[in-house]
Write a structure and sequence with these properties.
Length: about 750
Amino acid sequence: MQERLDFSEMSLVYAEFSLSRGAGASPRRPEACTTFMNSMRSSDSRLLVLCRGEVKQVTILGMKQQIMSLEEGGQWLEALALALDHYESTVASQEDNQRTSSSGSAGRVSSLEPSMLTEDEIWMAELLMRYLILAIENAPESLPYVSRNGMDLAHSHFEMLSGVCIEFCTTTKRLDLLFGPIFRCFYDARYINVFLDVMEAYVLNDRLRYIAPEAMSLFVAHCKEMKDLSTVERCLLHMDCSLMDFHSILSLLKKHSLFTGLFHVYTSGLDDFVSPLEVLMEALFDAVDADLANELSRDCLGGTKAELYGYKALLYLQYCFEGKSFPKGDPLQDGDRLQTLRPELFDLLLQKAYSNQRGHRGSSYPPRGIRSLSYPYMRALAMVDAKLLFGCISNVFDDQDARFLPSTELLADSWQVEIGTDTSFDVERIDNHSNDDKTFLPSKQSIVGCLSSIIMKDSLIDPSSQIGSRKLMTLLSIKSKHAYLDFLATVLAKGVVRTPRYIGEVFVRLTNKKGSSEDEILTLLHALPRGSFELDEILFTVERVEMMRAALFLHQEAVRANLSSEITARKAQHHLDKCVDCFLMDRDAQFRLGVFDFIRKTSSTGDVSGVLRDVILKRLAELIDLDPNQAALLVAEVISYDIGTILYRLKGLKSGSIEFKLLQAVISSNSNDDSVLQLKSNLTKEHHHSYLELLIKFRPDQVYQYLQTHQNNYRLDEALKQCQDCEIADASAYLLERLGDISGSLK
């Protein structure tokens, strides 16, 4: 270690001389040099310095001697600082070469034999202890009141003293000294709480990664007294779990219900993700039973311990399923651990009966309360927030890396069921599927089946179990059922599970849910096999809320299902008629026009041509009102009836406007389609006179143009009379001119 001395104030003896110069140097600028060569001499461990008035002696001391000199002069902090400098420059470098990394930056966590300590470490520890004892003996007295300047001198003194000791021990890696003699000194002085407060800052700043069991016990008690137990958990997140005494720390955490810290210690120190969840679930069971025993009027468990524990468990599951550490959210260090972690957690959640071997304090008695019900772990979480629980499970379902056992119920193209059969999920038989690979999750079918048996069969809490307030149970059951039906709709749309018998309830939920869209209904309908739902039941549900496109899909399915037999032809006609209804009742004008393409596409199927003609005739007036040109094309292409018969059926509808629109569309059409040309050629003069009469009524300004362009399609005398009776001047003059009455036309 080097030390720099300042001789500037000693007036040392020195000599001056000039350097020799070359031939080209300027004589006007001589360069004088100063030398102290003869002013200093060394002898043994002394340095003699010649000054102008005296000879001074500088003695060279070793590091230990310097520190002892500072100690004798009462400069304790300077002595300790110099000791730390010596440690960092000498001892620490030796430790790097001689000691294994097991000691690490966290320090020694157990007492070391004196033979294992170096001489420097021993006397440095003795120096610190002498300072500590002296500082405690000379500490200011603790006053029952605070001084005028607002300071407690004794508190400030021990706060400074704690910082010095912790800083010294963490730097020298002597945690055995810190939590041994030093800790006891503060405890005996009754200032252990000050020591613990300073220690907390070092832990939170990652300067101290270990706390001895005795100190941890007092730290927890201190935080509890300050009503800030969350500080303990924050500190645990900064500590090295591999150095802890797990038995003592876990006992403390369980005793004080510090579950976040419990998760961290178990997962980081023991790589155990299931045990801490079991401990938390035991607390959740007790909290849920306590809440259900009260006649609560609210519609959830909000603001209670059950909610606190339940959401912590759900958040933990969410982190684990996503491959993150809890609560930090960092990725798991072992990337492959996720493949075995998920199955371990699902094995606990899907446990059908509560096991007394889980460590419940009443394990010698039969399970009571929620523990006595089937699937108690999944059921308790569903009571807290079913939507969040199903969201966690859905994320696992969507993960492409997740490996699920094959379901015995899901064979190729056979997962649909026949209407009327009991299609409740068979969970236990699927879960008993033997598999030695611990990376496989239970089948998706069995997981959904478990949820089904909880939500749909038992209504969350079986009324016969007599657990809790009936009103609260009803409200919780409704909320969980809605969340489950939303979840089931999602997995059914993906085709990963078979359709249950209560599929109708899924559609009822989707149609009544706030913010739901018709696209969700259509996606689910396209995914479901035809035989897996009762068509009329779903039709009633979607038509009740006027989801016409979903209804259209179902009516089209019904048409295809009823065309195979003449007996059901009338039913097919009914559904075709409803298909037209769905188009015409849609809010989108462009979608309504799609009815014409639908009819043309349907007419290409020979089985429906006769049925379709009857439907078109029945709905022809509405089709003409929607688009006369498209309707006229349908009449020409699909309907084989005589045009006169069709016009007769339309006569008088809406004061003749429907007949007029069809005639105008046919007569004015410029289409070269053979069927349209044939339809136009079938119009007689009587049809044209009927059209002229309607044209005079609805479009009098177009009469003259019509008479000019269709001269051979009407009788002049009758046309003239119609125009004169209605006082159509230009048309009357044109007809009179054609009859040769020039003077009459001029009038």
